[in-house]
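Record type: ASSEMBLY
Status: queued
Input:
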Amino acid sequence: NAGVTQTPKFRILKIGQSMTLQCAQDMNHNYMYWYRQDPGMGLKLIYYSVGAGITDKGEVPNGYNVSRSTTEDFPLRLELAAPSQTSVYFCASGPRRDSNEQFFGPGTRLTVL
Amino acid sequence: AQSVTQLDSQVPVFEEAPVELRCNYSSSVSVYLFWYVQYPNQGLQLLLKYLSGSTLVKGINGFEAEFNKSQTSFHLRKPSVHISDTAEYFCALTGGGNKLTFGTGTQLKVEL
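Status: finished
Output:
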């Protein structure tokens, strides 16, 4: 199993540009998540999904959109990039269990200039 | 509401010395607790978890943690650290729902 994969690894965007961060998992997990990590702030949940076709907002959803058309894929869309979206983005997935263990991808480092 | 507090943002320690990374939590419901490790430029990796049963939990790489309900703590310990343990460590919890709440992380720096 490849686990959770993310592309790209790095990206520089100009203000106002848009892009999609890709996330895929091959563990047949129902739950998938997008986090952003900023220095000294820990991880903040952007969006999550409990299954194909079902998504919901996390703590910091503004400026982002998601979709979940398949169990495997959970892309994150930035429509109008802003400097405040400079961050490291992590995708995670987990099985449907009360323990809610999550498995993380390697991350995408995004800079908006 | 739930929260996780990691008061120490950085912990320097010499190689082969013991270390304790502190984690306190707040929750109105029973919790599951986790420690994750993040090596430089990598994603998070599960170190150990407490779900139920024995309050002393052993994880990978010689780490262990003790769940203390009365003190609402889940401190991480290792009796002898190695230079390769240099990383950021995150404590997290869930109340049985489908979302994790993370602490702000503790940077462990192991020096020779």
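Annotation: Chain A has a mean pLDDT of 93.
Annotation: The longest strand of chain A covers residues 42-51.
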